[in-house]
């Protein structure tokens, strides 16, 4: 194996002030795989497992703070998450396998890297892995690749389920870096590939995700996470939709919606969400919302099916949310 | 006596189960001889060309690296291609690892790093840089179809289609016609255990090679030929195999490279493949079948025209029997078929569970379903209407065919008569319900096999043959067979398999092991029993009641069966009295004169009827398989539990074939891109419903000595078609490409 330095700092200051090619290690479900595949080659692995980010805390405004090191499994099972953010619990349970969720952390989920075949295979050209080498996914076997937010340099799909729900919930990400702390909205956390596809997110060198803040969610039962994938468990989304609606007297007050499996980042379109403001639910409204969400979607060789499928999944998810019958992640019947 | 006197036919749990779940069962990558080197293979990222330069200086600097073996520094190997031929009989020029600098396929091994630790070997392997001269290639099946051909020398097990009548004319005259191109994506076997080899050098310098293979004697012969080694000094072992599905029929490059490295460095070596490397050798070929069916209005098949193509490499002509099954299984007066292979610059495709039939039966059964609907006939009724009691292609009688009974029992169990015929007519809320069915057929084969039975002073019966248990239950069924033949309790029987030094047994595959090895064990046990009683009767110390016709052996004890009884004698006592420490007998089961005549005059097949329920979301098209029933007619079932497990396993694999599994070839580089379990989707538990397996009573003394037909492949045949047909019944949409994925 390639040699690398390993440290397990006890304070943020120690963790954040390291020069050179470093990677933070939390649950390890992604980084270790990538190191074995020769995709990541850090000189220094900084294990942040001792930093105090292990708790889920109630917030004065009725929201929750999710520690970055709380596992996905513990988050999904936490009574306050289940009570206030069933949409988040559902999205987490739609992803990966129980074994992976037991190890993977909330901070790590934000920072997980794409599952693009070409990114994972060092024999192939990939601008995200090796800047400037080109994008072999374009024109290649790209059934799973993104159709929204792509660039000439990259069409890699952002893979998370959890982050799609976080985007619909308008969560905030707390960061600690060499220059102190800052916060950023989760919708602004991930980057479009543009000309710099190697940048997945806005993290600066030495910066660590410390927590995710969830604002109060006013959706009641009117939410869902609906995921269509190649098999019924343990597969990344072809199309997924997270929706939360504020319903009043049969009308939608306002709505929040994010797409997974479709974009190079969690895909939100405020103009599409604005269409829902103070409207009664209807097929034509939902078709318009889907159309607006998918505006500009571009297929490459193999992934046009996503664009055909997505409007139907979006509409269905909206109806699930309207009727207060969120998708179960254990019973595979789509509601 | 509280002993099961007929162990054969009982649902016995696998006797190797405890060893497996407690980690005592040793697999190919598990022996750890002192001084062992770890080998990591470096693979070519290009499909065709020539190695220009190997830059290995940086890799050699990694502490612990002992050698980097390439075509430039490898030791001497066999001079002629012929020496690399293996038992599978694929015509052509076999691939010779590290033979020279020419690249024939993406993923071809170009170097092996050998180091004191696995970590050092892997790091160094990442540092080996190779410059290539790139040559044009074609890895696109659609393009290779233009170069399809019939090999001048056919593969040994290839069955040429035999036309009958005038299919083209009959098709033109048929009032009902169905015509279409059906396609199956390439698939990889993906057994749980990756291919691996550990080479141990014994004190006398001989090699013991632990390899993940389905045929230890075939690997021994291959290595002896390819590496110019003496067979006598080369022992191949595979006592446990973590699944194979055909990937271990041919020697995989790891066994060649590990043994070559051990020869070069005179040290023990282990080479294990990674999951991505499991996509650099054999795979089920991509296939198309152009099928044209003609029928008269009353649903009588009049014509069947089947043209199939599968892919092969540029250097070998792999062939499969994909076009013959419908011609054999349906009574149809006019039928013709044509088969060709299409070359592309990949490794050679190879046999994967039910090779040929998994492709050909499933695709044909999808077309048959279309024809049934074109004739507005119930798909089961259509099949019964066109049922053939003979092998219709060879116009030969069959040893048995209880397919009619399988259809009836399966249909009854499934509740088929409650089916509503029109597509889209069965619904539950938002879900469309579809019921589909198909039939399956597979060869019932028997190959000459030897086995040894030995009775020791400890009173245990030891059975040995060079068969491989690839996870199917061979240990267990052979113990059951021995128990019944010899008259011995199961727990006093030891079975030894997976060793090239044991009595001859063909490579495990084709569902022939139960019939063949079972018969050999049966004969060896009868022979040993006769020998024991003979020796005892001849001994002057023996009790007077011991004579061949007055003694039985039951529950591991000799009994007097005359009215003078009851008297009995334990087996250790019997051995002592006869004056032996141990007695053994070896027998070979092979078709006798009657068997040979029967093989010439009668065809032999396993049959099945598969019924499936799917639920398809009416808006999204997402598919859930919610019920599967498979009624199997496979002659005598030695162990219903392990046999049903085999069928279920194949039904899971066939569900993958129908809905999930596809190796995605990037033709630009000739590489399968989804080379891991995250992206090559095999079914998960959530994808698989409760599966009911029924065994139809089928007594067949002629098919093989024990009346066994074998059950390893039949579960693949028909199941994928039943799922596709159910999707049609639910939605009214025909899918002619497998797998059927979301958005298709």
From TrEMBL, chain A:
Pfam families: CO_deh_flav_C, FAD_binding_5. It comes from the Bacteria. Residues 1-219 form the FAD-binding PCMH-type domain. InterPro entries: CO_DH_flav_C (IPR005107), CO_DH_flav_C_dom_sf (IPR036683), Diverse_Substr_Oxidored (IPR051312), FAD-bd_PCMH (IPR016166), FAD-bd_PCMH-like_sf (IPR036318), FAD-bd_PCMH_sub1 (IPR016167), FAD-bd_PCMH_sub2 (IPR016169), Mopterin_DH_FAD-bd (IPR002346). GO terms for molecular function: FAD binding; oxidoreductase activity. Keywords: FAD, Flavoprotein. This is FAD-binding molybdopterin dehydrogenase. It comes from Komagataeibacter nataicola.
Automatic annotation (TrEMBL), chain B:
SUPFAM superfamilies: CO dehydrogenase molybdoprotein N-domain-like (SSF54665), Molybdenum cofactor-binding domain (SSF56003). Residues 22-136 form the Aldehyde oxidase/xanthine dehydrogenase a/b hammerhead domain. It holds the Pfam family MoCoBD_1. InterPro entries: Ald_Oxase/Xan_DH_a/b, Ald_Oxase/Xan_DH_a/b_sf, Ald_Oxase/xanthine_DH-like, AldOxase/xan_DH_MoCoBD1, AldOxase/xan_DH_MoCoBD2, AldOxase/xan_DH_Mopterin-bd_sf. GO terms for molecular function: iron ion binding; oxidoreductase activity. This is Aldehyde oxidase. It comes from Komagataeibacter nataicola.
């Amino acid at each position: 194996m390639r040699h690398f330095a390993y440290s397990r700092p006890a304070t943020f200051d120690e963790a954040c002030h390291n020069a050179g090619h470093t990677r933070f290690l939390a649950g390890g479900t992604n980084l270790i795989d990538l190191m074995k595949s020769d995709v990541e080659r850090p000189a220094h692995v900084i294990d942040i497992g001792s930093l105090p980010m292990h708790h889920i805390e109630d917030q004065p405004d009725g929201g929750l703070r999710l520690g970055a090191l709380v596992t996905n499994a513990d988050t999904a099972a936490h009574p306050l998450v289940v009570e206030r953010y069933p949409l988040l619990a559902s999205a987490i349970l739609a992803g990966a396998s129980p074994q992976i969720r037991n190890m993977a952390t909330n901070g790590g989920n934000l920072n997980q890297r794409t599952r693009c075949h070409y990114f994972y295979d060092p024999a192939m050209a990939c601008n995200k892995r090796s800047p400037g080498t080109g994008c072999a996914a374009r024109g290649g076997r790209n059934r799973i690749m993104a159709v929204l937010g792509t660039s000439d340099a990259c069409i890699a799909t952002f893979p998370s389920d959890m982050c799609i729900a976080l985007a619909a919930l308008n969560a905030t990400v707390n960061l600690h870096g060499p220059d102190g702390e800052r916060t950023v909205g989760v919708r602004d956390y991930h980057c479009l590939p543009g000309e710099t596809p190697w940048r997945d997110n806005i993290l600066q060198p030495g910066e660590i995700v410390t927590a995710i803040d969830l604002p109060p969610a006013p959706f009641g039962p009117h939410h869902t996470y609906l995921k269509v994938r190649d098999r019924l468990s343990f597969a990344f989304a072809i199309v997924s939709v997270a929706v939360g609606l504020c319903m009043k007297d049969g009308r939608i007050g306002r709505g929040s919606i994010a797409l997974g499996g479709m974009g190079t980042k969690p895909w939100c379109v405020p103009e599409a969400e604005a269409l829902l403001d103070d409207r009664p639910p209807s097929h034509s409204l939902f078709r318009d919302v889907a159309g607006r969400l998918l505006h500009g979607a571009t297929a490459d060789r193999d992934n046009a099916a996503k664009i055909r499928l997505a409007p139907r999944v979006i509409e269905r998810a909206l109806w699930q949310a309207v009727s207060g019958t969120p998708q179960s992640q254990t019973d595979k019947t789509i509601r | 006596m509280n002993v099961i006197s007929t162990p054969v036919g009982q649902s016995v749990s696998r006797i190797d189960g405890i060893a497996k779940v407690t980690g005592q069962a040793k697999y190919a990558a598990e022996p750890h001889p002192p001084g062992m080197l770890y080998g990591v293979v470096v693979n070519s990222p290009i499909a065709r060309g020539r190695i220009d330069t190997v830059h290995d200086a940086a890799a050699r600097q990694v502490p612990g690296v002992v050698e980097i073996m390439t075509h430039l520094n490898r030791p001497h190997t066999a001079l002629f291609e012929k020496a690399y031929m293996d038992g599978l009989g694929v015509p052509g020029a076999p691939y010779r690892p590290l033979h020279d600098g020419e690249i024939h396929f993406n993923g071809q091994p170009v170097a092996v790093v050998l180091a004191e630790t696995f970590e050092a070997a892997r790091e160094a392997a990442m540092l080996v840089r190779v410059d290539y001269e790139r040559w044009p290639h074609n890895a696109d099946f659609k393009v290779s179809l233009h170069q399809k051909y019939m090999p001048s020398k056919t593969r040994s097990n290839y069955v040429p289609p035999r036309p009958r009548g005038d299919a083209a004319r009959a098709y033109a005259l048929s009032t009902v016609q169905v015509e279409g191109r059906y396609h199956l994506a390439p698939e990889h076997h993906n057994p749980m255990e990756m291919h691996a080899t550990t080479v141990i050098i014994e004190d006398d310098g001989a090699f013991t090679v632990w390899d993940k293979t389905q045929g230890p004697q075939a690997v021994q012969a291959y290595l002896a030929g390819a590496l110019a080694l003496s067979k006598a000094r080369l022992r191949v072992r595979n006592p446990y195999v973590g699944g194979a599905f055909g990937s271990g029929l041919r020697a995989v490059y790891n066994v060649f490279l590990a043994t070559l490295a051990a020869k070069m460095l005179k040290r023990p070596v282990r080479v294990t493949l990674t999951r991505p490397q499991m996509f650099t050798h054999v795979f089920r070929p991509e296939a198309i079948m152009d099928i044209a069916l003609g029928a008269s209005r009353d649903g009588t098949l009049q014509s069947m025209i089947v043209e199939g193509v599968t892919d092969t490499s540029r250097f070998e002509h792999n062939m499969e029997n994909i076009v013959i099954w419908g011609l054999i299984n349906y009574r149809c007066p006019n039928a013709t078929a044509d088969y060709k292979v299409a070359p592309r610059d990949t490794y050679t495709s190879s046999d994967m569970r039910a090779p040929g039939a998994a492709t050909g039966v499933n695709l044909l059964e999808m077309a048959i379903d279309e024809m049934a609907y074109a004739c507005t006939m119930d798909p089961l009724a259509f099949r019964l209407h066109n049922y053939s009691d003979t092998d219709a292609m060879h116009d030969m009688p069959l040893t048995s065919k209880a397919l009619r009974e399988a259809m009836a029992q399966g249909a009854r169990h499934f509740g088929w008569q409650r089916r509503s015929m029109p597509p889209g007519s069965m619904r539950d809320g938002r879900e469309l319900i579809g019921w589909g069915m198909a039939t399956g057929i597979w060869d019932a084969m028997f190959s000459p096999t030897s086995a040894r039975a030995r009775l020791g002073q400890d009173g245990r019966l030891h059975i040995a043959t060079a068969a491989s248990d690839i996870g199917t239950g061979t240990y267990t069924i052979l113990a059951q067979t021995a128990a019944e033949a010899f008259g011995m309790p199961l727990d006093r029987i030891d079975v030894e398999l997976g060793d090239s030094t044991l009595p001859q047994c063909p490579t495990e595959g084709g569902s022939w092991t139960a019939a063949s090895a079972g018969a050999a064990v049966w004969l060896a046990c009868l022979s040993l029993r006769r020998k024991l009683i003979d020796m005892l009767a001849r001994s002057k110390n023996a009790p007077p009641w011991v004579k061949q016709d007055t003694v039985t052996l039951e529950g591991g004890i000799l009994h007097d069966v005359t009215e003078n009884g009851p008297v009995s004698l334990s087996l250790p006592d019997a051995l002592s009295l006869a004056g032996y420490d141990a007695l053994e007998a070896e027998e070979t089961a092979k078709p006798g004169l009657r068997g040979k005549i029967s093989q010439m005059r009668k065809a032999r097949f396993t049959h099945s009827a598969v019924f499936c329920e799917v639920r398809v979301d009416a808006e999204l098209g997402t598919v859930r398989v919610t019920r599967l029933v498979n009624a199997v007619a496979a002659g005598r079932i030695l162990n219903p539990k392990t046999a049903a497990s085999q069928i279920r396993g194949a039904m899971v694999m066939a569900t993958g074939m129908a809905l999930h599994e596809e190796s995605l070839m990037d033709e630009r580089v000739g590489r399968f891109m989804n080379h891991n379990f995250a992206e090559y989707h095999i079914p998960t538990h959530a994808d698989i419903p409760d599966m009911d397996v029924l065994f139809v009573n089928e007594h067949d003394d002629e098919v093989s000595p024990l009346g066994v037909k074998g059950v390893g492949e039949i579960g693949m045949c028909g199941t994928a078609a039943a799922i596709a047909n159910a999707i049609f019944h639910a939605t009214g949409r025909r899918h002619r490409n497998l797998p059927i994925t979301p958005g298709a």
